[in-house]
Amino acid sequence: MRRGSTTRAGNEGRDQRENDDQARAEQDGSGRDRDEQGGGRRIGQVQDDAREAGAGEGAVVGEMAALPWQAHLGELAATSLAGMSRRLPTLVGAAIRLAWRASRFDTTATVVLNLAAGVFTAYGLLATSGVLTALFSGGATPDRVRAALPSLALVAGAAALRSGLQAGAGWAQARLKPKVNRMVETRLFDLTMRVDLTAFDDTDFHDAMHRARQRGLYEASAVVQEAIDILTGLVGLTAAAGALGVLHPVLLPLLLLTAVPDGWAAARSARMRYLTIFTLSPVRRRKWVLADLMADRDSAAEIRAFTMRGFLGREHDRLGAEECAVHVGLARRQTVVQVLGEIAGGLATGAVYVVLGVLLATGALPLAVAGTAVLAIRSGKTSLASLLYAVNQCYESGLYFADYLDFCAEAERRIPERRTGPVPVTFDSISTEDVWFTYPGAEEPSLRGVSVRIRAGQVVALVGENGSGKTTLAKILAGLYRPDAGEVRWDADRLSEVDLERLRENVSVIPQDYTHWPMTARHNIAMGRTPDDARIAEAARASGADEVIEPLSQGYGTLLDRRFKDGHELSGGQWQRIAVARGFYRDAPLLICDEPTAALDARAEHALFERIRGHAGGRTVLLITHRLASVRHADQVYVLDHGRVVEEGPPAALLAAGGVFGELYDLQARAYRLEADQPRGPGPSR
Ligand SMILES: Nc1ncnc2c1ncn2[C@@H]1O[C@H](COP(=O)(O)OP(=O)(O)OP(=O)(O)O)[C@@H](O)[C@H]1O
């Protein structure tokens, strides 16, 4: 039985968003102090320390494979800035195409407004030169100020226009994010619901899906944002460089000279961030596991029952101390890098001023132009720092975004091809002929040449020991899997020629592993079909779910999930009644019941088998159960063993033959007889 969501996935997503926020803060320049920079300790060292400190306790939590969102950290740590730059055009191209599909208007607006803002940045810088020229010219101060006024108005106008354009670009960029998110999410979940069911038995597919879901999904909009940030940075840099080139060609290399230390510091600080996350990942992973256990509803009762509070708290705190120690060490390294960056930047700026001084002294550069050059260099430096940061971020996001794209391509390949044969609606008999099936990655076939026949109106039972292949055969009959070899037929129609998605409309399944859908009781029974209250009530009556639902505060409108307000929790058996009602609600000629009574009490079980014996309202029933007494009334029984049919026939004949069915039946019957034969004593003494 499964729940609708997992806490683990929630934590990973949450952490990812935390990292995103942190990255944004750093980009804004506000998150530097709390940034995880430094990454000085080797990952192995941290793991060794953790093991020593835990003296084996870490094994309680256990080593796990790297979480999907960390999949590319190693790659990132090893990549140089040059390597990033080579891949960047492809990434930016993919991002722009994605943005274009999400919203042509917002993409165009973002690009055009950013470019226009760049033009006004350059224009403003050049106009500044006019202001300074007027101010530094000869004559009385009021005259000079008056002369500077037209250029000043141009500077102010350019600044206002630039700000307006940048605000517009920012708005368009912000509008793009939710649209891109929506588009990529819709595509991903459309694919996960359409791929062949066998994909979910394939670990490679699972890994790819988790990587795409946990991080790739969120990185799609980040790639778009960062590609635009790269564009913005480039535009700003070009504007500054263009202005300098117009003022004096020799000023261009000066911009590069001052930009180098800043660029180095920005790139190094970004790399440190990744290394730090990499270093801390095993510790944080364990902390998540513990955090889940300490704050999850499912484990809350056991923590109390086994008085595990102290143990879990100590383990969590030990890991917290590990994390804290790494952060403190990183803070020191962060300071060192910052200071080195500042010193190098200071020296470079000093060198620039020396060159400017020489140019001024030799008369190669007028004073006003030199003043403007200082402003342009400052503006260019800021743009370059943002550009380098965006390049780094875009590369990182791009790796995870590629996971998303790869997963989508893989999922597309796994969507079953649509077959065009006519979909049978009713049948006189359904049969399997020499069906073989092996789960992806499994070494042994789960079905080996199985042939069964189910005639309309019969109750046919599949019995056999655990793992003998009953559920697998039922899933093939339900059109959930296609056999590797052999054929399933509805009368003469071969299912290999039929679109199984449409066939499944004509099959109703009460699965062994049913889901606790976090929906109302009504929707739990109607399951995606238009709810018809009269039919829902009828299905609930047939399964005994009415006794469960009617006393609830909101009746059929009660939400069956305690995690939400006014939600209600049901017991295992109560949930099973709902799952059975779900099967009855679907108006399909074939009803497959896989262990429908495992959690039911004796009375409910009896009532359900009575109902099934009555052919569940005229349907044909395929029944899988270990309650062999209930199989006595089936029309036909197939006994499976290691994926083969080893016995078949009416139950009475099988009992008389004394084979596997007879043996299993006797074992169960004997247990009841023994209990019944026990002398009933006076009961426990008081
Ligand atoms: N998703 C899967 N991937 C790989 N092997 C599987 C998968 N599901 C089932 N199997 C294997 O296929 C075989 C048949 O499993 P199946 O679930 O059909 O048995 P069953 O007869 O229904 O068992 P039970 O009575 O325990 O429900 C088992 O050996 C099982 O381990």
From TrEMBL:
Stored InterPro entries: AAA+_ATPase (IPR003593), ABC1_TM_dom (IPR011527), ABC1_TM_sf (IPR036640), ABC_transporter-like_ATP-bd (IPR003439), ABC_transporter-like_CS (IPR017871), P-loop_NTPase (IPR027417), Type_1_exporter (IPR039421)
Annotated region described as Disordered, given as residue ranges: 1-55
Residue spans of biased composition, Basic and acidic residues class: 11-39
Localisation: Cell membrane
Domain ABC transporter: from-to ranges: 430-667
Gene3D superfamilies in alphabetical order: ABC transporter type 1, transmembrane domain, P-loop containing nucleotide triphosphate hydrolases
Keyword hit for Ion transport: no
Keyword DNA damage: no
Transmembrane segments: 111-136, 351-377
Recorded superkingdom: Bacteria
PANTHER family given in the database record: ATP-BINDING CASSETTE SUB-FAMILY B, HAEMOLYSIN SECRETION ATP-BINDING PROTEIN
Protein name: ABC transporter ATP-binding protein
Provenance organism: Actinoallomurus liliacearum
Lineage, top ranks: Bacteria, Bacillati, Actinomycetota, Actinomycetes, Streptosporangiales
